[in-house]
Amino acid sequence: MALQIDLQDKRVLVTGVTSGIGAAIATVMAEAGCDVAGCGRSGLDSSGARAFVESVESAGRRAYYVQADVSDPQVPAALVGEAVDGLGGLDILVSNAGRNVFKGAADCTDADWDECMQLDLASHWRLAREARPHLEKASPGAVIIIGSNHAWGTIPGCFPYNVAKAGLLGLVQSLAIEWSPAVRTVGIAPGFIDTTGNQAWFNSFDDPAAERARTEAMHPVGRLGTSREIGELCAFLSSPMGGFIAGTTLCVDGGRSALMQD
Question: Which of 161, 168, 230, 231 is catalytic?
Fold first, then answer.
């Protein structure tokens, strides 16, 4: 029998499922056997929400969508409650929702800082805190926090995003040592992933194809990552095969961080 990841009948909440990495995570988790609750800022009638529901149901699993802005401190508790009610419980949390806030240290306002810290740092803690009592019933439950390779090394103009992502490293460590073994916590820090958002960044250059080629050449693997690869890693880490991985954040950047300089 071929080795395969089996998450049959597990129940997962994935945040930020209407596009990019979150959408792929939801799809892969459903293909692995999970019923999936997902959230996004757009309504259920939006194309992203409809695509989420269709991808999960096409895998033969239940989909439950909630319109929610997890940067609001009051939302995580309500979101977790709705996910638990919709799925009948919770075994896995994949806290993925985030957004680039690139201002630079000198140009960053207090409002920019607060926006970034609420979404890219505090929301992950609040979601995990609210999910914990439900995940403990799974024996063990799992929390996967999606960060960024900016946690270890960044470039000018990416403040305060990089600060928030660095904070997630400590969050993963603290949750793992305080909540294990009932809830196992691990982080994933993607590098340059080929999403529509990143393609829009390429398109901002005079020669998008040349800029894309230059960026790909910076990666020892010779390409950008895919959202599905992050989803597949989430499925692995959620399974018993990843059961000895806790309290650490895995950098998934195609070897980019191994280079001392460009």
Answer: 161
What is the domain range of residue 33?
11-190+225-252
In the residue annotation, 161 being an active-site residue is answered as: yes
**Residue 159: inside a domain:** yes
Sheet-wide strand order for 92-95: 63-67, 35-40, 11-15, 92-95, 141-146, 183-190, 249-252
CATH code for the domain of 179? 3.40.50.720
Task: Report the C-alpha gap between 159 and 174 in whole angstroms.
Answer: 24
Compute CA 240 distance to the chain's CA centroid, rounded to the nearest angstrom.
20
Write the pLDDT tens digit of every residue in 140-152.
999 999 999 999 9
Q: Is residue 259 part of a domain?
A: no
Query: How many domains is the chain partitioned into structurally?
Result: 1
pLDDT tens column, 11-59: 999 999 999 999 999 999 999 999 999 999 999 999 999 999 999 999 9
